[in-house]
Amino acid sequence: MHKVRTEFPKNFLWGGATAANQIEGAYLEGGKGLSTSDMAAYKDPYGEGRVNNFTFNVSSEELEKYLLNPEKYNFPKRRGIDFYHRYKEDIRLFAEMGFKVFRLSISWARIFPTGLEDEPNEEGLKFYDDVFDELKKYNIEPLVTMSHYEMPIELTKRYNGWMSRELIPLFIKYTTAIMERYKDKVKYWIPFNEMNMNLNSIYTGAGVLEDKVTNVIQAAYQTSHHQFLAQAMTISNGRKISKDFKFGCMINAIESYAATSKPEDQLASLKAGQINLFYPDVQVRGYYPSYMIRYFKENNINIVQQEGDNEILKNGTSDYVAFSYYMTHMTEHREDMRDIAGRLDSPLKNPNLEISEWDWPIDPIGFRIVLNKLYDRYQIPLWPVENGLGAHDKVVDGKIHDDYRIDYLRKHISAMADAIEDGVEIIGYTTWGCIDLVSCGTSQMSKRYGFIYVDQDDHGNGTLDRIRKDSFYWYKKVIESNGEKLI
Ligand code: BG6
User: What are the entry keywords (predicted)?
Assistant: First the structure.
């Protein structure tokens, strides 16, 4: 019988998560090329009367303007939080909190500036060598995402990003270069961040200019097909490079509760769940599930595939399921399921849940549900690699009293402890934005997630000084006590 575990495993990997394009800055230093995320121009986040004025889609017209007259715009992701120059100080602070793991991503455009070069850029490779060495000093394990919402912009211009199958060999060249280089420094890899978010922003997830495709949903699934193949090939290659490598697929897990007990709504909720889990279904099982084949047929979605693709998928499945968890949604029956499935902005509001300042529903019990469902379905280890609360923080006399963040994390860690007791196997937990960083969705600096405050505003003003928040000391105790002390 499965042993009931009432505490976090001894070797549980506590830590925090980031992404290159949201922290590094130095967007043209060290030989780096321009990337898709360097084009996410800041827009008034409260414009059009919405708190979430997403900046993650870029049109052909905007791209042209941004390339021609960059000085006219504010590009927060070009600045990040200057991790490129301050990584030693930041890693020291992570070590002070007792981190066992740090999730970061490698910027493809630092290694292959346009994506097309034959040889990798040595200066780019050296930067990550230095970062990994610094982590090693403190025994912090790196967890490395190979593609987190960015790629060389040249690949967008030339191929319209992942719409083209040509991207696969270019990605394999990149991932082979980094796996060869860091085989003795990195064990845990995630080839793609939240591939399912291609349905939300095909530019952010797949470097595609939406105005250049005719059917955006079909395009999102076509880019995903190419990414599935690229991921599977990376994994089978990686297994030849090192036997120690462990690969995770990664989704934004959004549990979708049925809006009512009406069977039609229950069915709609099941379908929304399938659209979410379609991604790990392919990546863990190695084939397209039948419910999705039906969905494609019913919605006239035609994915161009080649002979041999099924074989590739079968040979590159994942060792663990990584996922981000921020919220749950509600689903009701609709004639057109495309209206509701896979989106970040749910049209239905759950009256039982509080929401964040950015209207994101807060649901710790949903976290336990997601952990249980994923484990029941796949029976391989899970890894929540993103979870956290985006909030406005105030500095008062040099201190940040972020009890709201502590409260949020405490409830989510508690839910995770419950899931462990339910029998779910979890490798570790990395909170999102362990140091304040530029928001992915809105390019704001003022949407903060960190234990460490970074003195910078949305327009790049500030000293960039790092300040420990109250949550910093709280998380340190959580780690020290291996999740026992949550108060
Ligand atoms: C995840 C992304 O979906 O959400 C991160 O992987 C992102 O890159 C995080 O930052 C939070 O979203 P936002 O828009 O608040 O930054």
Answer: Glycosidase, Hydrolase
